[in-house]
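Worked example

This section walks through a single chain of length 85. The input is the sequence exactly as stored; nothing has been trimmed or padded.
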Amino acid sequence: MRDPVKKALTRTVQVKGPRGRIQQVEVPPSKRLIYGVWFAVVSLIALTTLEATYILVLRNFSNEIFSAITGLVGTVLGIFLGQKG
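Given that input, the structure is written out below as tokens.
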């Protein structure tokens, strides 16, 4: 797998196979989830860059940008913890 998001969100489940043997099967996440996580990560990088630029140019801290960054971090962590659990 080349995609690190897909690899991180892939679940391994145990399934009863023929003759009662237990097999482990990898269940990949949906494409919509992968695209959503990539969008959130790219947005997080863009907002962090925007906040750093804002601080360097205006010598001030933007609470609005920081709250957006905090929300995105919570969303991404929630996705990873919820999908693996």
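What to look for: The chain has one domain: 4-84.
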